[in-house]
Amino acid sequence: MKEKLQKLLTNSYSPYSEFKVAAILVAKNGTEFQGVNVENASYGGTICAERSAFTRAISDGYHPYDFEELYIMVDSPNISTCCFLCRQVIIEMMEPDKTITCMNQNGEEQKFTVGELCPHPFNEEDLNI
């Protein structure tokens, strides 16, 4: 997975932050969905690599909880975790016991469960008024 992510990092469009991120989402059937961060001058319109991979999977007909693991690599010597916008998508798409592997540019990694990264999710129960 490390080599795939390192190659995928080159597809990142990050001219403003110069912070490249690549993600590979693995469905329970083994299908892989790749994503990279895509920035634009209106920073709020930027899409993260993780959400890019999820939108690709959903566009291809997959559904919430069809996913087994998520791999993320940043073009940095530091290991980074997902932003909170991505965590919201992750908690709605993956079960709490599924694995997220975060890597730096050298492939050093740290593993988390979805539940560890998202211990207090905002979900449909919060929308009941």
Task: Compose a concise summary of this entry.
This protein is 29% helix and 23% strand.
Could you characterize the architecture of this molecule?
The chain is α+β, with helices and mostly antiparallel strands. The protein has helices at residues 2-9, 49-59, 84-93, 114-117, 124-127, and strands spanning 21-27, 32-36, 67-74, 99-103, 109-113. The protein has a five-stranded mixed sheet with strand order 2-1-3-4-5. It is globular, with a radius of gyration of 14 Å. The mean pLDDT is 95.
Describe the secondary-structure layout.
Elements: H1 2-9, E1 21-27, E2 32-36, H2 49-59, E3 67-74, H3 84-93, E4 99-103, E5 109-113, H4 114-117, H5 124-127
Keywords:
29% helix; alpha+beta; five-stranded mixed β-sheet; single chain; 129 residues
Order of helices and strands: HEEHEHEEHH
Task: Provide the spatial order of strands within the biggest beta sheet.
Answer: 2-1-3-4-5
Shape: globular
Quickly count the helices: 5
Range of helix content: 25-40%
**How large is the share of residues in beta strands?**
15-25%
Give average pLDDT, whole number: 95
- DSSP strand count: 5
Kindly provide the radius of gyration, computed on alpha-carbon positions and rounded to a whole number of angstroms: 14 Å
Structural class by secondary-structure content: alpha+beta
Low-confidence runs of at least 5 consecutive residues: none
Main sheet overview: 5 strands, mixed
How widely separated are the two ends? 43 Å
